[in-house]
Amino acid sequence: MSAPLVLVSHTLCPYVQRAAIVLAEKGLPFERRDIDLANKPEWFLKISPLGKTPVLLVDKQPIFESAVICEYLEEIALPHLHPANPLQRAQHRAWMEFGSALLSLIGAFYSARDEATLTARAEEIRVRLGQIEAVLGDGPFFAGSAFSIVDAVFGPVFRYFDVFDAIDGLALCSGLPKVQRWRSSLASRPSVAGAVRADYPDLLARFLRARGSALSRRMAPVVTPA
Fold first, then answer.
1. What is the reported pTM?
2. Is 109 found in the same domain as 40?
3. 13 included as an active-site residue
4. Which of 6, 78, 95, 225 is the most exposed place for a label (fewest CB within 10 A)?
């Protein structure tokens, strides 16, 4: 690579975060270039066929889709974040897809227009978290002591729960000690913590309040000082 890596990103995009985490875990220097997805610049539309972030520029050549970016980084730089065993590696990739599906479900949850739909989506999330609880070991990470790309995928997922936990009546992770332990381990990992700006929790809460959804109505209003 003759030119520095550039990660084209959006501040709140969880898929960007997983790419940033893998870059950090591998010690690869990169420039982060944030764009406004509501006002996409022309240069971005030329390098992102789907108009989505993240895009990784390698020698000014674009790679899009976060899973593909992570797999590319796994191929070009150490340390390896996938298991060496082919079967275990395939299983990890399957759980990465599970994490992406969970993100989609979270999106349906915070966009639900009525309480009945919100409650139904919340129950689906609890079921999915229960499935994760059933496969986790003693930690601290998904596969034990070694940090993997599965961890990079779920670190951004659990950030949503930091906001959800402050909303009365949700407690989506309640009764799931292994999930809670994993979540805590990821939150304290430097690569995960450093994948977002310091004001990310406030930005995320503001985004959720602005949805005009059932969840928005449950969230405590922001009190403006007199």
1. 0.94
2. no
3. yes
4. 225
